[in-house]
Design brief:
The protein contains eleven helices and six strands. The protein has about 270 residues and is α/β, with parallel strands linked by helices. It has two domains: about 100 residues, no CATH class; about 140 residues, Alpha/Beta hydrolase fold, catalytic domain (Rossmann fold). The chain has a six-stranded mixed sheet with strand order 1-2-4-3-5-6, with helices on both faces. α3 crosses α4.
Length: about 270
């Protein structure tokens, strides 16, 4: 039974890492005949003075302005390198942006809390650059799918389209689907702790199964799970105290907007 659980958990962990972090185009899709120019460590100012880090991939030698596509991720921009190369080699500028508090971006990472405003500011900053033709798109899955919807509700004027896949939906499927918290919440929070990836720890299924089993057999309260695994998390404790739902303030912050769409803006998106 335990071996079966280990195998299942390993598969889920691998899928999570692959789907959420390394969703990328295979190296074979690169067109080696189309060189790419790189701008590493570009800093994008937010309205509160925090600067987000971006890596920019441009079609080499392009003189005209072109659309910009970007992914905003907590999983560190380098994990999406293959995708960026693909689009840059097919005529687009692609930017990989570390969310606030992750990678080389400033500020502190608080899951789901700042993505809407930051996403809006990133869109509008890109749109004002001389190499952008004023059209900006977002692409990504999982957390990078969620923050597209979060950005959209802020109605940035130059957001031409979003392409979310398997987007997390705070208050519906994460962190407490059907109002039931999951042990995986602590695992994910450990994955995104600090500023660098913790992919190997995240995928170490034997460690996580042992800790979950220890908590169960010793009747340790669920709220102590973060301490049990060795990573006390203020985010985990906040979620438990103030459950994100569609009915509470946290859910409204993530999912709703106090603004109403401007008809001209909606027509421009068609």
């Amino acid at each position: 039974m335990r071996n079966s659980l280990r195998r299942t958990f390993t598969i889920l962990a691998v899928l999570a890492v692959y789907g959420a972090c390394t969703v990328s185009f295979a190296a074979e899709t690169h067109d080696s005949h189309k060189p790419v120019d790189l701008s590493w460590g570009m800093k994008i100012p937010m309205r509160d003075g925090i600067r987000l880090n971006a890596t920019l991939y441009k079609p080499s030698g392009t003189k005209r302005s072109v659309p910009v596509i970007f992914t905003m991720t907590p999983y560190i921009s380098d994990t999406y390198h293959d995708r960026a190369m693909y689009f840059a080699q097919h005529g687009y500028i692609f930017a990989l942006v570390d969310v606030r508090g992750r990678g080389n971006s400033g500020g502190a990472f608080e899951p789901f809390a700042n993505d809407a405003r930051d996403g809006h500011d990133v869109v509008e900053w890109f749109a004002q650059q001389p190499w952008c033709n004023g059209k900006v798109a977002m692409w990504g899955g999982s957390y990078a799918g969620f923050n597209q919807w979060a950005t959209l509700k802020e109605f940035p004027p130059h957001l031409a389209t979003i392409v979310p896949a398997a987007a997390a939906h705070p208050g519906v499927d994460f962190p407490a689907p059907h109002s039931i918290f999951a042990s995986y919440d602590v695992q994910w929070l450990t994955f995104t702790s600090g500023v660098t990836p913790n992919a190997k720890l995240f995928g170490e299924s034997s460690f996580w199964i042992d800790k979950y089993r220890e908590r169960y057999l010793n009747h340790i309260p669920f709220r102590q799970l973060d301490t049990l695994v060795g990573n006390p998390s203020p985010h985990f404790q906040k979620w438990l105290l103030h459950r994100i739902s569609r009915r509470d303030g946290a859910g409204r912050t993530c999912l709703r907007s106090n603004r109403h769409p401007d008809p001209d803006h909606l027509r421009a998106l068609r």
